[in-house]
Design a protein that fits this description.
The protein is mainly alpha-helical. It has ten helices and no strands.
Amino acid sequence: LVVMSDPRKTVMSVAIDTALAVLTGSTSGSTSSSSSATTDQAYVAPTEEACRSIQDTVTSLVLQREYPDFDVALPAGSSATATSDKHRYVDQFPSDDEEDEAQTAATTTTAQTSAQRPAEYTRFLRHSFHMALTCFVNSVEVIANLEGHNKLEGRTLRDIIDSSSFTQQVVQVMSDGIRSAPKIHHRAYQGCKCLRYLCEASPKIRSMVQSDTELQARIQTAFRTGCERHWLLKSASQRLWTTVHADDDGDDEQQN
């Protein structure tokens, strides 16, 4: 999915269908797969069932850090009421994804005690989260940059945002990613890039970002970190800041 949602690594029709599947759980907004036959004879558009499965998996990992409908076997002698049908692992991961050994060890110990699952699942789930996040951000970028493409049949990123039930959660995930700028540069870069596209598409989201002083500070920290260590992060945070403050009186506020 990471490759299929990146138009630089696949054909355009595949990237659009994958983006729609991730963001809407359906490819009904695109033209039939026959229209892409001249582009890729071997490509077959995903079924509606497959699209829903793709969206459930990606959004569950991005928003809750778990696979959908994942059941953990209870240890012998445990009561069935000792755990819920769907386990939430989000509390077992530091919000800024610290990767130092001490934090990882503490997280693993907590995970083993509370869920009685293999220690390596912590690392597996963290890796799955980062792949799902990349896929989600790729999908937002595809729709934002290809809104005029005939495969979308007039649908825009704003249409998708307005019909989404988890937009506010996505903004929070991206904000958390930006907060990790001093330690995990690429995740902060993804957060800035995705949030910029969302702000450009939705005045409501842009207003949310404008009124969030803590997020404003995080963007500035990301910019300073980018200036020192990560050119892409510098560029993405600067473009996000410019987008958020595009209508400010006078000259746009400069990041120092």
